[in-house]
TrEMBL record:
Segments of skewed composition (Polar residues): 7-22
Organism: Marinobacter nauticus (Marinobacter hydrocarbonoclasticus)
InterPro entries on file: KH_dom-like_a/b (IPR015946), OsmC/Ohr_fam (IPR003718), OsmC/Ohrsf (IPR036102)
Region Disordered: start-end pairs: 1-35
Protein name per the record: Osmotically inducible protein C
PANTHER family membership: PROTEIN YHFA
Domain of life: Bacteria
Length: 140
């Protein structure tokens, strides 16, 4: 896996993945940025959410659950000192669908957390406290 990051002026950077997709990152105005894109640490948090949501959906599809939506809410805390690393991350999955089985959703979230989500497992090994929760909503 490869990626590039190019400075585009002030506190702004364009990151490009090896697969050719780009995203603009920027710093806050009080650090020379223009708020043109997410902060790099926000990208890291979003990456954890995307990695885990991908796993959860893949597992639920394989278990033949009729999912119509999966919404992941992430909340993180950072250290007060430099480096301001993540100290806690909580992922809350809101899974919507027809006749979803509690055990299947719980299993999907657990498997992602304990076995499949490389991003959250890596951060957990670095000392970040990572927790998960979920809720099921029925499609009307």
């Amino acid at each position: 896996m490869k990626a590039t990051v190019d400075w585009t002026g002030n506190a702004s950077f364009r990151a490009t993945s090896g697969s050719g997709h780009s995203v603009q990152m920027d710093g806050p105005p009080d650090h020379g940025g223009e708020n043109l894109g997410p902060r790099p640490m926000e990208m890291l948090l979003m990456g954890v959410g995307g990695c885990s949501a991908f796993d959860v959906m893949s597992i639920l599809k394989k278990s033949r659950q009729d999912v119509t939506a999966c919404h992941t809410e992430l909340e993180a805390e950072r250290a007060d000192a430099v480096p301001a690393v993540f100290t806690k991350i909580h992922l809350h999955f809101v899974v919507t669908g027809h006749n979803l089985k509690e055990k299947q959703v719980e299993r999907a979230v657990s498997l992602s957390a304990e076995k499949y989500c490389s991003a959250s497992i890596m951060l957990g090994k670095a000392g970040v406290e990572i927790t998960h929760s979920h809720e099921i909503r029925a499609t009307e």
